[in-house]
Design goal:
The complex is a heterodimer of chains A (295) and B (518). Chain A has 295 residues and is an all-alpha fold. Chain A has a domain of 199 residues: MetI-like fold (Orthogonal Bundle), CATH 1.10.3720. Helix content of chain A is 70%, strand content 0%. Chain A is elongated. Chain B contains 16 helices and 25 strands. In chain B, a hairpin with a 4-residue loop joins strand 14 and strand 15. Chain B is globular, with a radius of gyration of 25 Å. The chains are: A mainly alpha (295), B alpha+beta (518). At the A-B interface, loops of A face helix 7, helix 8, helix 10, helix 12 and strand 18 of B.
């Protein structure tokens, strides 16, 4: 990913510009970031505009129209229940994309708070929190998600909770390390001497300094979260029928792979594009935002 | 690799492949894993067909439910209907060489009723007649506490297959890994989750007369390859790696049978068919009008079209076609009529605002559940959800793993759930509709119905029994406590070269009379 990181030799004009526009310019020059952004924006627009792109209800069954191959009326064909595949893929995309976003945001918030507290408090409390976090890290992610949904019961919300829990240690470890480092810097001591309470120190002095790493982490894990959400949907522990979701649609289709390819190919293509898009975006953002990578 | 080294390899392959195809060896694509191969402790319908090839029963039931001699040459029923005397064949030996006689039958019944056996289906099949006594070397007498009409037919279910008393003695709790019967095939090996291998019993010469086959089986070896994934099972069959396949998914059945290249064996699994009990203890289906609205709102034919490519015959009554008392006229009871369903809901006091029905501040909300691993139940439940949503029900769907599914339905937390129940006698209904039964998932009982179920059991006259079961079906449908869905068929496909596969009454595939054309 080092092809576009170097700025052009003539960068004297940049000095006058705001940091935001520098970042934007760098982002624009970063090819994978640009490609990732385009893919994600296009996909987001498609699923947001679903009601205008298709007139079909994704849950409406039709006994007369089962297993229709793609046609003008049904550009992506119909499934076993005669439901329009385009409606299902587009509306299902809303679920998959929003759910994966919800997962990383929830995981990031919980993990960051834990990491901040553990890193700032240190000592026995910090040790206890981090060992608990290590305990979570000891289980393979998807196995833990399965165990949690087995306890909570199947469903989209429970699936989101389960996968968020898996992400907590990832953030907690990152933030805890960074917090410990910043905690020992003079400006933090200064703030404490001036009478700032622990919450204020954590929120206004430490958090802003770990934020960029958290954001980079979030974009890199977004793709993984999307895969886990669809995996849960695929094995029937995520959304419940008739609500569409890419993983669930893929599972509907896999039984008929050799007879009705369109049931698997379209959601598969959309899911792959989404994963590729967020991964490119994540890589690019890391290059642009991560302060440890020098220009 | 040089061509010199390649040649012998190719030659070897070329020799091996036709070699495999020639022999009377059959590979069967099997859909489910097995819990055990002990007929007494198995709880699975899908173990039945494998067991019926290893074990013989006292009687054979034809697919039309005719009871024929098998291990018993003849039998008599006493005047009072309380004792059955079976005269046994004298020339039968178990696979381990133990002779089959009256004492062996008694050992089997003692084993089934034994306290430590944990018998599942078998004990229920014997009903009140679980006492056997050897009244001669080859004569055994069953005594019943009360008249029990279903006994003879149920004697022919593979769960009452006769096991070698020596094996029962020797293996104890391990008996399920060492099935030893008198059937046309001997057990060779079982790799759990992968395959079960049987070989021909060369001494076999007592096959039921209606099968028209004398002497031992033609097939030398059967391998049941366990392939639970339907797609893989179909591919295995299409590529010729298996010659027979069970549980063909609807759409593939439609496509593969259309080619005309295969023999179709729609094995009829008798019992209650595929149906969904309607929970009469849970709001809002505690109201008979709401239950009836559900009955009118579901179109069985379209449901099968949606869920299973339309390949199964619909069912409109709780007893399978062909069973004693099956009521053909029940099809007229609840024609598909969504308008009628809506007017019933109005009659029950529900108000429709264009999207939802409400009554006293509550919405018309129901919960449909299905076992998550079973594609056909999932599809049926979703189709039912579609029909009910169509007329404004708030129909929730939940897929559950089977322990959670069992718990929820026993506790009465689910409104509707597709299910199956198998049996050769209409008395099987009692498991679902007598008070306090494990499977009373309608959570509904009725004194008249209870009386009729007991009458049906103790009535020995065929026509009178049929009349009783017709009345029972009327009561169940008039109270709308069961939504019949479709006939229960095991869609089995075989290559044209394989002939003679049949099944015993109840729907248990039998390979004893099968052969492969050279």
């Amino acid at each position: 990913m080092d092809v576009t990181r170097t700025l052009p030799a003539d960068d004297s004009g940049l000095a006058a510009k705001t940091p935001l526009s520098v970042a934007l310019l760098r982002a624009f020059r970063h090819r994978s970031l640009a490609a990732g952004t385009v893919i994600c924006v296009v996909l987001a627009l498609l699923v947001i505009c679903a009601p205008w792109l298709t007139e079909f209800d994704p849950a409406k069954q039709s006994a007369m129209e089962t297993f229709q191959p793609p046609s003008l009326a049904h550009p992506m064909g119909t499934d076993a229940f005669g439901r329009d595949m385009m409606a299902r893929v587009l509306y299902g995309g809303r679920v998959t994309m929003l759910a994966s976003l919800a997962v990383v945001v929830m995981g990031a918030i919980a993990g960051t708070v834990l990491g901040l507290v553990a890193g700032y408090a240190g000592g026995a409390a910090g040790f206890a929190i981090m060992r608990l976090v290590d305990l979570l890290l000891a289980f393979p992610g998807i196995l833990l998600a399965l165990a949690i949904t087995a306890i909570l019961g199947p469903g989209l919300v429970n699936g989101i909770i389960a996968i968020s829990i898996i992400l907590v240690p990832v953030y907690a470890r990152l933030v805890e390390g960074a917090t410990r480092e910043i905690r020992s810097l003079p400006f933090v001591d200064a703030a404490i001497v001036l009478g700032a309470g622990p919450v204020r120190v954590m929120a206004t002095h430490i958090l802003p300094n770990v934020m960029s790493s958290v954001i980079v982490m979030t974009t890199t894990w977004l793709g993984v979260a999307a895969l886990w959400i669809t995996a849960l949907g695929f094995i029937g522990l995520g959304v419940q029928p008739p609500q569409p979701e890419w993983g669930a649609i893929l599972n509907d289709g896999q039984m008929f792979l050799t007879l009705a390819w369109w049931m698997t190919v379209f959601p598969g293509v959309f899911l792959s594009l989404f994963i590729i898009g967020v991964n490119l975006l994540g890589d690019g953002l890391r290059d642009v935002l991560d302060p440890t990578i020098a220009d | 690799m040089t061509s010199k080294r390649l040649l012998p390899l190719l030659a070897a392959l070329g020799l091996a492949l036709p070699g495999m195809a020639h022999a009377q060896e059959l590979v069967v694509g099997w859909a489910e894993t097995n819990d055990t191969l002990n007929p007494v402790t198995t709880g699975k319908r899908n173990s039945g067909p494998i067991l019926s090839n290893i074990f013989d029963t006292l009687v054979w039931i034809s697919p039309e439910f005719e009871v024929e001699p098998l291990l018993a040459e003849s039998w008599t029923v006493s005047e009072d209907g309380l004792s059955y005397v079976f005269k046994l064949r004298e020339d039968v030996t178990f696979h381990d060489g133990t002779p089959f006689d009256a004492a062996a039958v008694v050992s089997n019944i003692d084993y089934i009723t034994g306290e430590n056996t944990q018998s599942k289906i078998s004990l229920g099949l014997l009903g009140p007649c679980a006492h056997a006594e050897a009244t001669g070397e080859y004569e055994v007498t069953f005594t019943c506490d009360e008249i029990y009409a279903p006994l003879l037919a149920q004697m022919g279910e593979p769960y009452l297959g006769m096991q070698s008393p020596a094996a029962i003695e020797e293996y104890g709790a391990e008996l399920g890994q060492h099935p030893t019967g008198t059937g046309p095939f001997k057990f060779v090996s079982w790799t759990p989750g992968q395959s079960i291998v049987l070989e021909k019993n060369p001494d076999y010469h007592w096959m039921a007369a209606s099968l028209g086959h004398e002497g031992p089986a033609e097939i030398e070896k059967i391998t049941f390859q366990i392939v639970p994934n339907p797609q893989s099972r179909v591919q295995q069959f299409q590529s010729g790696q298996s010659q027979v396949m069970q549980q063909t998914p609807g759409l593939y059945w439609k496509t593969l049978t259309a080619t005309g290249k295969y023999t179709e064996l729609p094995v009829e699994i008798s019992g209650l068919g595929i149906f969904a009990p309607i929970n009469a203890s849970l709001f809002p289906t505690d109201d008979i009008l709401v239950r009836k609205a559900i009955m009118y709102a579901v179109d069985q034919k379209a449901l099968i079209q949606l869920a299973e490519a339309g390949v199964y015959p619909p069912s409109y009554t709780p007893l399978s076609a062909g069973m004693l008392g099956h009521d053909e006229a029940a099809a007229e009871k609840y024609p598909y009529d969504p308008e009628k369903a809506k007017s019933l809901l109005k009659e029950a006091g529900w108000e429709f605002d264009g999207t939802t029905w409400t009554k006293d501040g509550k919405t018309l909300s129901i919960k449909i559940t299905a076992i998550s691993g079973k594609a056909h139940y999932m599809a049926q439940a979703q189709a039912i959800q579609g029909f009910l949503s169509e007329i404004g029900f708030d129909a929730q769907f939940e897929a559950l793993n089977s322990p959670a599914w069992l718990d929820l339905n026993i506790d009465g937390g689910s409104t509707l759930t597709p299910s199956q129940y198998i049996g050769v006698d209409p008395d099987a209904l009692h498991f679902w509709f007598l008070p306090d039964q494990y499977f009373n998932w309608s959570h509904w009982t009725n004194d008249e119905l209870t009386d009729l179920i007991y009458q049906g059991r103790s009535e020995l006259d065929h026509d009178k029994r049929a009349a009783i079961y017709q009345k029972i079906q009327d009561i169940l449908l008039d109270n709308a406590v069961i939504l019949p869905i479709r006939q229960n068929l095991d869609l089995t496909l075989a290559e044209k070269s394989v002939t003679g596969i049949t099944w015993s009454g109840g729907g248990f595939q039998y390979f004893g009379a099968a052969s492969i054309a050279e």
